Amino acid sequence: MTTITRTEEILLLMVCKLGEDAFAMQIREEVKTLTGKLYSIGGIYVPLDRLTAKGLLKMEDVNADEERMGRPRRRFSITSQGMKALKETREMEQAMWDLSPELLQKMGLV
Description:
By secondary structure, this protein is mostly helical. The protein has helices at residues 6-18, 24-35, 41-53, 80-98, 101-106, and strands spanning 57-62, 73-78.
């Protein structure tokens, strides 16, 4: 099983949601909308790079233009390994929540 952090999980989900529009700044805006937290640019790029290094995301450079001073935009897409990691993470989290219905009831969560 590939273990991912909560931030990595959120980023993988946002890449899935955005599809062809999964550029770092769009991902950052979607994360802000979802969580209410505005991540710094580094707070987005570092985990995106880490997910790419793990083989959970693929990155491609697109649209180098004059406005960006010749720098390409980085578009991300999820790999089959990334989809598997999300599935395993969801199953693990569900199993943890299902461990003790009595405890959840005691905590007022059900």
